[in-house]
Amino acid sequence: MLTKRAKYGLKALVYIAKNGEEGPVQASKIADAEGLSIKFLESILTTLRKHEFLGSKKGKYGGYFLLQAPSSVRMVDIIRVLEGPIALVPCVSLNYYKKCDDCKDEATCSINKLMVDVRDSTLKVLKNNTLADVAQL
Amino acid sequence: MLTKRAKYGLKALVYIAKNGEEGPVQASKIADAEGLSIKFLESILTTLRKHEFLGSKKGKYGGYFLLQAPSSVRMVDIIRVLEGPIALVPCVSLNYYKKCDDCKDEATCSINKLMVDVRDSTLKVLKNNTLADVAQL
DNA sequence: TTAATTCCTACAATTTTGGTAGGAGTTGCA
DNA sequence: TGCAACTCCTACCAAAATTGTAGGAATTAA
Questions:
Q1: Cα–Cα distance measured from residue A61 to residue B87, given in angstroms and rounded to the nearest whole number
Q2: Chain B residues with CB-CB distance to A under 8 A?
Q3: Is A1 within 7 A of strand C by CB distance?
Q4: DSSP of chain B, one letter per residue?
Q5: Of A72, A84, A136, B22, which shows the fewest CB atoms inside 10 Å?
């Protein structure tokens, strides 16, 4: 399951993609519309800003805005930043590889192939969908 | 990511599928072979027994054994018991459905379709693979 | 100057995870 | 009958992750 952090972040990005035509979108607007705690949402938006999905403008009439066209933002990249690995076990993660504590030998690990197959099938969906697709733009 | 509980359980089942020809397999054997804590493993095997993946025999020369042919045990069913939902959000889970706290309206949830697509793609892999496939029997 | 906003640091409650401890009950065999 | 090797059961627990909250500082538009 996704953490709420990741889920809220995804929804926030989609909201901004849909409503960002007329200038920056305020965190409070998003929190209202999606039913989220504003303080928690702020910390998520900060993460997205630091990873250059979002820009921000301070002060009155400030808010958050996309730095790239929605059609060039892949869902997989967002999830990797908000949630971490796509893979179900660390030792088959492409972006967050880590040896499993218990695995004596990765090459002979009994569940390795299955884990790779699941990972690739998930990746396919998440790479083929952009923010524009999900926001139906 | 899978919990260690689920990962250990999967490995244990594969081990039993591979080594269960000559009678029950002891928890201590599995723990040794896979590098797991025996007490923790015991509690996982209990779960698998209660869900009728495994049978057990007490006393000397006792241990655990599969109740069905490996080729008729789907990976998806094991993971559902050990880990819970396959879906990334509760509101698209087929077996563990739960309304999302924040979702006002599921039908208009912006990420619903993506979540369904990911779920189905994962399910396809996990339904097509049985214990026999994974254990290479 | 004021209101509205982001930005920053610190803390904290709750839940989940990943176990451990200690022994009771069962069985096969000498 | 007694011992060794197992499963089975209950209870507990520490660490980590998650999901926030609190309180304000800094910035900006009008």
A1: 38
A2: 1-2, 4, 7-8, 10-11, 14-15, 18, 34-36, 75, 84-85, 87-90, 100-104, 110-111, 113-114, 117-118, 121-122, 124-126, 129, 134-135
A3: no
A4: ---HHHHHHHHHHHHHHHH-TTS-B-HHHHHHHHT--HHHHHHHHHHHHHTTSEEEE-STT-EEEESS-GGG-BHHHHHHHHT--SSSSGGG-SSS----SS-S-GGG-TTHHHHHHHHHHHHHHHHH-BHHHHHT-
A5: B22
**Domain residues of chain B, as ranges?**
4-66, 85-135
CATH C-level class of A4-66 = mainly alpha
The single-letter code of the amino acid at B84 is: G
**Chain B residues in contact with A20 (beta carbon < 8 A):** none
Residue type, A135: A
Nearest chain B CA: its distance from A88 CA (Å): 4
Confidence of residue B101 (pLDDT cuts 50, 70, 90): confident
Per-residue pLDDT reduced to its tens digit, B38-75: 999 999 999 999 999 999 999 999 999 999 999 999 99
Q: What's the average model confidence in pLDDT over B77-83?
A: 98
Q: List, run by run, the mean pLDDT of 10-residue segments along chain A (137 residues).
A: 98 98 97 95 98 98 98 98 98 96 86 98 98 96
B136: exposed, middle or buried (C-beta count within 10 Å: 0-12, 13-18, 19+)?
A: exposed
Cβ contacts of A48 within 8 Å, gap of 6 or more: A9, A12, A13, A54, A64, A78, A81, A82
Proximity of residue A45 CB to strand C below 7 A: yes
